[in-house]
Design a protein that fits this description.
heterotrimer, A alpha/beta, B mainly alpha, C mainly alpha, B: mainly alpha, 13 helices, 71% helix, 0% strand, globular, C: ABC transporter involved in vitamin B12 uptake, BtuC
């Protein structure tokens, strides 16, 4: 064996209730390499890594680190052996400083438990310069952009002397330019002798940065090889188990009839902090306008303004045709659990959420139970909600089915404008395709859709035009047919403006 | 009346009266910084007051009384912690239930021990053994009551512990983002439990002061101080020193009530002052008061 | 067995277990003072349930608890903690009393509804305040409602003692005969001697009304939506502030009606201290009934029985035992509810058609 195995997992099995998340998985990772762990949502990647990281205990199988068999009962045990996880949803405390976040749990102390601020600072500075990860230790995490927050997460694990780093979908919230910086960091770490495991479903990234790749599907390993010996088509075939059908966009051009006119909208909150700065655009019927942007650049405020949750400080919004009544906007919210559904309401009750005042559902005081029940049945049938029980609480349905309930409710409104905010987030491939097809159908039937998504490939697939937001401004609107992810990324990070 | 206010004796009175506000408020700060809302301060104060009364009566020693008051508060804090931190029940309802429990059990025990459900027999106080300090010029009036010094020292100590020590950092982390702390190997349950225990112990001590100051126990003698202490903590934005200042403000209001009684305004309206003040103050400050992010939300560990 | 029925049985078992544990804990207190718990409980149950007078007393106490329980439950369903039912009850009671003795000449058919409306108005005003403060300022209701209890007590103490009192008493002048609610014994002679009166009918009607509103009206739907998912309700353009204020006002009116039992049906005047913790008992009642209006009368009966039962054994054990039991019941119910929450998804998944990944 040319290089030693940093990690050797054999026969790992883990079952939750009656779902086998990991089924006799073998994973071997060489020391000083970048290893990609690939699979779609629900394939078992996160579970496997949580076992490696000590959060879960496997039902069967062994783990060896550097040749020694190990059992981890808690993440602390794993950290003790040098294994640490950088989470997809950052585990950072926004109201505390960078340095407090980094040292938490492993704080240097003097005598009676007093925090040794000087030592913390010195240690962090040393680490930061060693790996070229500059950071301001006394900055509050809440003030940092996403790319820097991720840097803090990485410093956290390095501070604990981890030499096996597991990164869970690290590029999910980054723009292309930031992704490049991250990959440089990963390469630096690898060259320094660290072992990196990257969980991802983005095959482009696998090809560009990893040395080895393992593909999981339905809890089993279906492919494990050196990255140089494979290609994206093979990987995607292994991931999904079938040819991913070339998804085609709609062929007919958008209408020229305007649906939504946004005119010099600005929004400043009470602090005063500006969130939107002089935004103008027009959405036409039979058009999907994508909104690209790193999270936190004003998109959520734009959505709030359009849905009537906030009022613009200046500028006007105009919905053509039916007047600007809020009932004439369909909104698929970003967070279906907290904003789109009342989880403890039944399917039927959720079906009329926001529409309970419509004549078919209620009279001046009393509810029309029959009308609601009929409507709920229609949604179940038309959108394929499973299980087909209108008296079951929304909480009990899977993510995809929950989204179907929301879609069923919103898309059957007499609304010409649809605002879809991260509509496919957290859904598996089948549900994702269903939703995307649905949006295209709605577009073709004459509606106008505003699509906000962090998935650039989804935006490019579905949109006719894509607007990019950066620091509250609408930087540009590009034609989706001719632009690339890199172009979008340049605008998303403001690089385009700086280089001008 | 102006002369009555701006002199040392009045200030001393205000500081004395602030003790049963300050101690529970400081305790609550620890509890809530850890993420546990403690509505049961009132009940903990009351239990401490009764335990102190009973113990002082039977042992004829106020020090034993104070120790028992602290223990009673600690016990109530433990009950709260088991229900809310370990079993993850709703913190507000448990707090209210504990208040009712304290009300009922103190009356019950008072009836049993003193044959009256509203008043106990008289007990000695602690002014008996601190008379010598009174002679120090200017600050003598303040120093003669050890509780005042204790409360002030505790305020400063709380600030130090919360912001300069490892324990404080972890406690605050657990109140803001317990999941993050958990992934770093910090025992969320233990820390949160310690916070609620501290609030119980300190409230018990506050109750001890009440009993020794009044030289007896009276049914419902806490009269809402536990809730006002909570308001002080909110107004102080969960910072010990600020909360203490807010408590002194409320103590000032209570002192005013005492001064103004016997005047022209009907006594009931004077009695209303602290409660109305609390409501007004809460409303004025509410926009800028942000609690710890995970305050009130039980921490459910991921299945493993 | 049908899935829904299984879930109901599980919930029922949970409640029963909670009550059993509570009685056991109470038994510990009784033993601690050297008495035999079994003997005490037996005496309590037999003296209260064992004769018509006792039952009448239980119904009398339960009447007020139904109103305060409904008041607290309606608020809980919309996510609002109403700890102020005690104050609302007092304010309503005084309004009823004042209307009662001020309009003595009116015919009963007018006077009684007038008094009831006056009581509701007083309670509604007292309930409006914390709702408004929350809607407008975001002020948390727990401290506010508790402060309002103290303020109400002080205000009423002043009004009764200094303005309205009959000299050398702590109560108001009697309400006119036209404002009196007849006792049940006038129709049902078996209740002879007990103060239970027709406000009980009012209470039961109120429970039905609240049930109807919650389950069959749009207002009830919106109210439940803010309680179960306030953010989603906001996104659905519901006016959370307005709804909150409406609920707390309605709830204050409900709590206030609990005083009609005493002021119109029993003593026929307002007496300081009449409420005796009924507002807080409402919290226990609401929790025991899991905030379901139709279950509230039953929960109210249970606590009515405990309350009166406590009086019957007062010579042996201080009646404050009942207050201790009340608190323990609350704690046990909350804990059992928590356990149910943990096991319910399992139950639901196995009881209803299988869910699959969509």
């Amino acid at each position: 064996m040319p290089s030693s195995l940093a990690i050797d997992m054999r026969g790992i099995t883990k079952t939750f209730r009656n779902v086998r998340a990991n089924d006799r998985i073998d994973l071997s990772v060489e020391q000083g390499s970048i290893h990609a762990l690939v699979g779609e949502n629900g394939a078992g990647k996160s579970t496997l890594m949580k076992i490696l990281y000590g959060m879960y205990r496997p039902d069967a199988g062994t783990i060896s680190i550097d040749g020694e068999t190990c059992t981890f009962s808690t993440p602390q045990d794993a950290i003790g052996r040098g294994v640490a996880m950088v989470h997809q949803h950052f585990m950072l405390i926004p109201t505390m400083t960078v340095s407090e976040n980094i040292i938490l749990g492993s704080e240097p102390v003097t005598g009676l438990g007093r925090l040794d601020a000087r030592k913390s600072r010195a240690d962090i500075d040393k680490l930061a310069s060693k790996f070229n990860l500059s950071i301001e230790p006394d900055a509050l995490v809440s003030t940092l952009p996403v790319g820097l927050q991720q840097r803090v997460e990485i410093l956290k694990v390095l501070y604990r002397r981890a030499d096996i780093l597991i990164l869970d979908e690290p590029t999910a919230v980054l723009a292309p330019q930031e992704i490049e910086k991250l990959f440089d960091t990963l390469r630096t770490l690898r060259d320094d002798g660290a072992t990196v495991i990257m969980i991802t479903h983005k095959l482009q990234e696998v090809m560009s940065v990893s040395d080895h790749v393992t593909v999981l599907r339905n809890g089993r390993v279906v492919l494990a090889c050196e990255t140089a010996t494979t290609d994206m088509a093979t990987l995607s075939q292994a991931m999904v188990g079938r040819e991913i059908s070339a998804r085609s966009r709609s062929s007919s051009p958008p209408s020229t009839e305007p649906l939504l006119s946004v005119d010099h909208i600005s929004f400043v909150d009470r602090q005063p902090r500006p969130h939107l700065d002089d935004i103008s655009f027009t959405l036409h019927r039979k058009e999907i306008l994508g909104i690209a942007g790193v999270e936190g650049n004003g998109q959520s405020y734009l959505v709030d303004l359009l849905t009537g949750m906030r009022q613009p400080t200046s500028g006007t919004l105009r919905l053509h045709g039916h007047g600007s009544a809020l009932s004439h906007i369909a909104h698929i919210p970003e967070d279906r659990h907290r904003e789109g559904l009342v989880l403890d309401f039944t399917l039927a009750e959720n079906a009329v959420l926001g529409r309970q005042r419509e004549g078919q559902f209620s009279g001046p005081l009393k509810f029309r139970r029959r009308g609601i029940a009929d409507f709920a049945s229609t949604i179940i049938k038309q959108f394929g909600v499973h299980p087909p029980s209108m008296t079951q609480r929304a909480r009990m349905f899977s993510g995809g089915n929950q989204q179907k309930i929301v879609l069923g409710r919103e898309l059957t409104k007499k609304a010409d404008l649809i605002i879809a905010n991260q509509p496919c987030r957290g859904l598996d491939i089948g549900a994702m395709e269903f939703v995307q097809q649905l949006l295209l159908q709605q577009r073709d039937s004459g509606k106008g859709i505003l699509l906000i998504s962090a998935d650039l490939s989804e935006l490019l697939l579905l949109s006719d035009r894509i607007a990019v937001m950066f620091e509250g401004k609408l930087v540009t609107i590009l034609d989706a047919g001719t632009c690339t992810e890199y172009d979008l990324g340049a605008h998303m990070t403001g690089a385009s403006r700086r280089s001008a | 009346m102006v002369d009555a206010i701006f002199n040392i004796a009045f200030l001393a009175q205000v500081l004395r009266i602030s003790v049963p506000y300050t101690l529970p408020a400081l305790g609550a700060t620890f509890s809530e910084r850890g993420g546990v809302i403690n509505i049961g301060l009132e009940g903990m104060l009351l239990s401490g007051a009764f335990a102190t009364t009973a113990a002082t009566y039977y042992a004829n020693d106020p020090l034993i009384g104070i120790a028992c008051g602290l223990l009673a508060g600690l016990l109530m804090g433990a009950l709260h912690g088991v229900a809310t931190v370990v079993l993850k029940a709703d913190q507000i309802i448990i707090g209210i239930a504990l208040n009712l429990f304290a009300l009922g059990s103190t009356k019950f025990l008072c009836q049993l021990l003193f044959h009256s459900s509203s008043n106990s027999s008289r007990i000695v106080g602690i002014d008996a053994w601190s008379a010598s300090l009174k002679n120090i010029p200017f600050v003598g009036d303040i120093l003669e009551n050890p509780f005042i010094l204790f409360a002030m020292a505790l305020a400063i100590l709380s600030h130090y512990v919360l912001f300069k020590t490892r324990y404080g950092l972890r406690l605050r982390a657990v109140g803001e983002h317990p999941e993050a702390a958990d992934t770093l190997g910090i025992n969320v349950t233990q820390l949160r439990f310690s916070g609620i225990l501290i609030s119980g112990a300190l409230s018990g001590l506050g109750g001890a002061w009440l009993a020794l100051d009044q030289h007896s126990f009276t049914d419902g003698m806490t009269a809402g101080r536990g809730f006002i202490a909570l308001a002080a903590m909110i107004v102080g934005k969960w910072k010990p020193l600020n909360a203490t200042i807010a408590c002194i403000l409320f103590a000032f209001a209570e002192s005013l009530v005492i001064q103004l009684q016997g005047g022209n305004v009907p006594v009931q309206f004077i009695q209303m002052i602290p409660y109305v003040l609390t409501m007004v103050v809460l409303v004025s400050f509410i926009g800028r008061a942000v609690p710890p992010a995970a305050d009130g939300i039980p921490f459910e560990k991921e299945a493993s | 067995m049908n899935g829904a029925a299984r879930i109901l049985m599980l919930k029922g078992a949970g409640v029963f277990a909670a009550l059993l544990f509570s009685l056991i804990c109470g038994g510990v207190f009784i033993s601690a003072i050297g008495k035999d718990p079994l003997q005490i409980y037996l005496q309590m149950f037999s003296e209260s349930l064992g004769n018509p007078y006792g039952i009448g007393q239980i119904l009398f106490k339960a009447t007020t608890f139904i109103f305060t329980g409904l008041s607290v439950a309606v608020c809980f369903r919309s996510g609002f903690f109403n700890i102020g039912a005690e104050g609302q009850l007092m304010v309503g009671g005084l309004c009823i009393a004042v209307t009662g003795f001020s309009f003595a000449g009116l015919p009963s058919l007018l006077h009684i509804p007038l008094c009831i409306l006056a009581g509701m108005a007083g309670g509604a005003a007292w309930g409006f305040i914390p709702g408004f403060l929350k809607a407008r300022f975001g002020a948390h209701e727990v401290i506010n409602t508790i402060m309002l209890n103290f303020i109400a007590a002080a205000l009423i103490s002043y009004l009764v003692n200094s303005v309205f009192a009959v000299p050398a008493t702590v109560h108001t002048p009697p309400v006119g005969h036209s404002a009196e609610l007849a006792r049940l014994e006038s129709l049902f002679s078996i209740f002879k001697g007990s103060p239970v009166n027709f406000s009980l009918a009012l209470a039961l009607l109120a429970a039905l009304f609240v049930h109807y509103v919650l389950s069959h009206t749009r207002f009830g739907y919106e109210l439940r939506a803010i309680g179960l998912g306030s953010r989603a309700a906001e996104c659905a353009h519901m006016n959370v502030g307005l709804l909150t204020m409406t609920v707390t006002t309605l709830s204050g009116a409900l709590a206030a009606l609990g005083s009609a039992n005493f002021v119109m049906g029993y003593k026929h005047y307002y007496e300081i201290g009449f409420s005796d913790g009924a507002g807080f008992m409402g919290i226990a009642v609401a929790l025991l009934a899991n905030n379901r209006p139709l279950a509230i009368p039953f929960a109210a009966l249970f606590f009515g029985m405990l309350d009166y039962g406590g009086l019957t054994i007062n010579t042996l054990v201080p009646k404050e035992l009942v207050n201790i039991l009340q608190a323990i019941v609350i704690i046990m119910i909350v804990l059992s509810m928590k356990l149910m929450d943990r096991w319910m998804p399992q139950f639901e998944k196995t009881s209803l058609p299988a869910a699959s990944n969509g």
